[in-house]
């Protein structure tokens, strides 16, 4: 199971194994793109970086955080473009991608949709003991994967 936290500046990814109610950490990381790099190259870097992650870990499915609208329309457009590159990499690999709202991810992992990043990271330490998490974006991606594991099969 591959969890994704798409972003143009740094896309987080996390791979877990789900066996019944048991969740095991496999790997996680972040795919940063330099802000000075032209947009087309940044998107290509995200797509090829994620394609390499998919090739290495061969997940059966993926889950991504749904897009949210920022106060700044330019930020929303950049996020949408990054999500497009991430979803294209998944689609090219034949992966089904479930999408979840950030509040639903937080509720599934922490128990409240209003949880902050510190609370999510603290719960990840409990759910994935011993996992070395690459950063905040990787933590968010792992949370998306865990939420999807809990929500799979439930009506949306």
Written account of the structure:
By secondary structure, the chain is of the alpha/beta class. The chain has a single domain, classed as Nucleotidyltransferase, domain 5. 47% of the residues lie in helices and 21% in strands. It contains five helices and five strands; from the N terminus they run E-E-E-H-E-H-E-H-H-H. The chain has helices at residues 39-57, 73-92, 102-109, 117-127, 136-151, and strands at 2-5, 10-19, 22-32, 62-65, 97-100. The chain has a five-stranded mixed sheet with strand order 3-2-1-4-5. Helix 1 packs parallel to helix 2 (73-92), helix 3 crosses helix 5 and helix 4 (117-127) crosses helix 5 (136-151). InterPro entries: RNaseH-like_sf, RNaseH_sf, X-over_junc_endoDNase_Mg_BS, X-over_junc_endoDNase_RuvC. Keywords: Cytoplasm, DNA damage, DNA recombination, DNA repair, DNA-binding, Endonuclease, Hydrolase, Magnesium, Metal-binding, Nuclease. Belongs to the RuvC family. The active site is at residues 5, 65, 137.
